């Protein structure tokens, strides 16, 4: 157990508390199971980090929800959908989709599978608490590097193009991980078509650039927090991929930074949240924006979510990605130098922002 010293958070041995927490291999859920009633200091966010931007709760400002029904059948409906996807990707960098083709029972089973993973016996879970297996479970991947530990546990696995052997996936959720990742990849390809068309490119342009070839699945668990106002589930970051498809449950907590205000992304039944990652901002030459987001801690959880990152960062790949030539003109010269997905991943080191809290994209700007 990590001893708590929340009444005097400045006077504690941070390094040894981090190590003690890490060595439990039981994550944040382990602390909750042990019955803590105060937030241990390693989780305390600096107050200015939590409150820097106001939270705006105004229905006038909300992430667009786009209905994909009949997108493949009716060209005039498709055109409307493409316009909506383009507008949302330019203005918000985020949107939700409904009628996306993934059945509700698959979404429910995926969330149940994540709950089963975390709620199984600690001893079974601990075997994945390592960076040397295809499925990596830990609390925060950047436990020792972050300013404050996030109130969250995560397990992750690359699911495409080279998925792990089935026996390497956790038995309690392996079938649904395989099924869901296949369906998400198909949706990823459809989204790339719509995004290509919204950029005025031919339908297969982004697909042919391999933007949905690689898929990293991150399964998050945000236990109920004893002092949610002092912690964050995920601190402010942007995603370092092409696009992300996020499945969230009914609890909520995801917020998007829009015009210097945090806007809630309300859970909608059957919906998936889509966001533009840094690499798509780069190749679209800033037409689409990769927007910072965070998850606040909650007192009613556990909340579960599954983030599917489309990126090929683990495949050795020398393919260069720069602003797409067809989008450039005298009035729209390239804003970024070319990079590889691997270089971008190494540069961002899996972290959503640089040490000063700025986007890693700035480093690649011409
Ligand atoms: O859990 C969520 O709602 C967001 C997760 C997220 O932002 C991420 O995995 O990058
Ligand atoms: Fe994210």
From TrEMBL:
Q: Which GO MF term does the entry hold, naming one?
A: dioxygenase activity
> Which Pfam family, any one, appears in the UniProt record?
DIOX_N
State the protein's name: Oxoglutarate/iron-dependent dioxygenase
> What family is reported?
Belongs to the iron/ascorbate-dependent oxidoreductase family.
Would the keyword Lipoprotein turn up in this protein's UniProt record? no
| Organism domain of life | Eukaryota
Against InterPro entries, the record matches this protein to: DIOX_N, IPNS-like_FE2OG_OXY, IPNS-like_sf, Oxoglu/Fe-dep_dioxygenase_dom
SUPFAM superfamilies named among the record's database cross-references: Clavaminate synthase-like (SSF51197)
Record's keyword terms, sorted: Dioxygenase, Iron, Metal-binding, Oxidoreductase
Residues in Fe2OG dioxygenase domain copies: 213-313
Q: Which cofactor does it need?
A: Fe cation
Q: Which organism is it from?
A: Corchorus olitorius
């Amino acid at each position: 157990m990590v001893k708590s010293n929340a009444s005097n958070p400045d006077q504690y041995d941070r390094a040894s508390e981090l190590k003690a927490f890490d060595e439990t291999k039981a994550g944040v859920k382990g602390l909750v199971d042990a019955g803590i009633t105060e937030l241990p200091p390693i989780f305390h966010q600096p107050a200015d980090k939590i409150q820097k931007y106001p939270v705006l709760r105004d229905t006038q400002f909300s992430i667009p929800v786009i209905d994909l029904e009949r997108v493949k059948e009716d060209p005039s409906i498709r055109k409307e959908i493409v316009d909506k996807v383009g507008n949302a990707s330019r203005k918000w960098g985020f949107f939700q989709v409904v009628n996306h083709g993934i059945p509700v029972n698959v979404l429910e089973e995926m969330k149940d599978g994540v709950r089963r993973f975390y709620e199984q016996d600690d001893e079974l879970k601990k075997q994945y608490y390592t960076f040397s297996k295809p499925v990596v479970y830990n609390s925060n991947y950047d436990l020792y590097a972050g300013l404050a530990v996030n109130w969250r546990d995560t397990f992750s696995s690359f699911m495409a193009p080279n998925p792990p052997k089935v026996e390497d996936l956790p038995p309690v959720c392996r079938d649904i991980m395989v099924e869901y990742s296949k369906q998400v990849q198909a949706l990823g390809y459809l989204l790339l078509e719509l995004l290509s068309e919204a950029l005025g490119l031919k339908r297969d342009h982004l697909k042919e650039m391999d933007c949905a070839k690689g898929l990293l699945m991150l399964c998050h668990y945000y236990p109920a927090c004893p002092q949610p106002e002092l912690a964050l589930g995920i601190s402010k970051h942007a995603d370092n991929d092409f696009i992300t498809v996020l499945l969230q449950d009914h609890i909520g907590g995801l917020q998007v930074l829009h015009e210097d205000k945090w806007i809630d992304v309300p859970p909608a039944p059957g919906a998936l949240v889509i966001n533009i990652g840094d690499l798509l901002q780069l190749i679209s030459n800033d037409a689409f924006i990769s927007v910072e987001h965070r998850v606040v801690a909650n007192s009613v959880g556990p909340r579960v979510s599954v983030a599917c990152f489309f990126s090929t960062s683990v495949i050795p790949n020398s393919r260069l990605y720069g602003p797409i030539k067809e989008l450039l003109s005298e009035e729209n010269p390239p804003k970024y130098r070319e990079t590889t997905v691997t270089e971008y991943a190494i540069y961002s080191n899996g972290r959503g922002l640089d040490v000063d809290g700025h986007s890693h994209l700035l480093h690649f700007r011409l």
